[in-house]
Design brief:
The protein is α+β, with helices and mostly antiparallel strands. Helices cover about 30% and strands about 35% of the residues. It is built from three helices and six strands; from the N terminus they run H-E-E-H-E-E-E-E-H. Strand 5 and strand 6 form a beta hairpin. The radius of gyration is 15 Å and the shape is globular.
Length: about 150
């Protein structure tokens, strides 16, 4: 099976969930023992189990993305990284009235088991200028907007 095609289906389904809040569509794409991790944030995140991962995605989107006026995310590059792994880079940009734009890249590694996403790891690289800008922007504007990007 083409894991890049699997990843692209996953990415499209996730973006559809962001748009309509119908998170149940991810169930068939996730392994029951799915693990989601985020590295490079001040507080690392780790969520285990399909239901917890889906709930974590929904929580983070409601606590951060939906509180801002506009969100745009795209996958900028993908490559196979072994028979059951895909490495992708995404770029997300947010706009909100009266605030400077916020945009940053993310390294996303996915591992697949029996055709389902088993492990997803997002990394915000500390050496990237945009990661520092993300932390600065969040520190200056996040509290006033009540932003909470946590997953649990």
């Amino acid at each position: 099976m083409d894991r890049i095609a699997d990843y692209r289906r996953w990415f499209a389904a996730f973006e559809a969930c962001v748009a309509d809040d119908q998170w149940g569509r991810l169930e068939a794409l996730l392994d029951p023992d799915a693990v989601y991790e985020v590295h490079g944030l001040p507080t690392p995140q780790r969520v285990v189990g399909r239901a917890a991962v889906i709930a974590g995605f929904a929580r983070s989107i409601r606590g951060f993305d939906r509180r801002l006026a506009q969100r745009f995310q795209q996958c900028t590059a993908t490559r196979g990284d072994g028979p059951d792994r895909v490495l992708a880079y995404t770029y997300t940009r947010y706009e909100h009235p009266g605030l400077p734009s916020l945009g940053f890249p993310c390294r996303e590694e996915s591992q697949w088991r029996e055709g389902r996403l088993w492990r997803l790891t997002n990394t915000y690289e500390p050496q990237w200028v945009e990661t520092a800008e993300l932390f600065d922007w969040f520190g200056r504007h996040g509290p006033a907007l009540g932003l909470d990007p946590s997953y649990a």
